[in-house]
Amino acid sequence: PTIPSGWNGWSVTSDGGGPFCQDRCTGLGPGSATAIDEIWTMTHDVDASGLDGDVRLCFDVGAEGSDGSEYIQVTFDTDDGTGFQEAWYWEDEWGPDGACRRVCLHLTDIDPAAARNPDLRIRFEMRSDASDRYVFIDDIVVDGAVYCDGTGSVSTTSLTEAGSGSYDFLLSDDAGVPMGAYAVCTWDTATPPVIGAGGTWFTSP
Asked: pTM (2 decimals)?
């Protein structure tokens, strides 16, 4: 099947019959937007007003039989009058046929105006110039940092060991609403022992 304009909020234009929805990458769900012997664009408006910093666009990308005639261009517009600007571009071959790779672009590194932007616009343009050459994308996600305003508190549940050195826990604000976050935890360096009268005493790390 083809992906029609308006599907899940995407504005679609094409000089062929696509984008075609085909099972290419395996990730968040079935179906990848595939270009086959055509050029198409998919554009989506994103409200990033809740993201303070490090607004990030991630997607899976892959190809089959591609050569120098295929390309993928990713652009974004911050609605500041400058128009769309390029965030990522690829052409030529893309590794093993059918293989998908995750790409993440930090839009705020390219243009800080992407942060807290309620009118962020993301666009993918893809080209395939033959019916036996496929270019496809899947699992498009926009996320970023959400900082505390300093007036509330954040609570965590107890840590549960999840194996391989990782732990699971839930994070919630002072209203008990679950929060999504990236968390990096490190162990404090043990404090050197303190030698005193009557033996060796250790301060708590």
From this structure: 0.68
